[in-house]
Design goal:
mainly alpha; 89% helix; elongated
């Protein structure tokens, strides 16, 4: 039987896990976006494809690089969740 504290703890751990797995990819996209915005401001080039293509490529590269870390984090969280279910809450 799960009580409110256990539900809140699982929710907190899930939120932390989401931030931990998505954080590196989001940071890579943000850094590239900031660099492109700075480049556009300095050169007054306002081409829309200039912002999308590099960000997409960097995000895909970041996913490939951080995928082992992301998978390990997800597997550990899932195993701990299954252990709690097996223990009865």
């Amino acid at each position: 039987m799960m009580n409110e504290v256990a539900v809140l703890e699982i929710g907190r751990e899930a939120t932390y896990m989401i931030l931990k797995t998505a954080g590196p990819v989001m940071m890579a996209g943000m850094i590239v976006g900031l660099a492109i915005s700075l480049f556009q401001a300095l050169t007054t080039i306002q081409e829309m494809t200039l912002t999308f293509v590099p960000k997409i490529l960097v995000i895909l590269l970041a996913i490939v690089v951080f995928l082992p870390f992301m998978m390990t984090t997800m597997i550990e969280f899932t195993q701990s969740l299954f252990d709690r279910i097996a223990a009865g809450g």
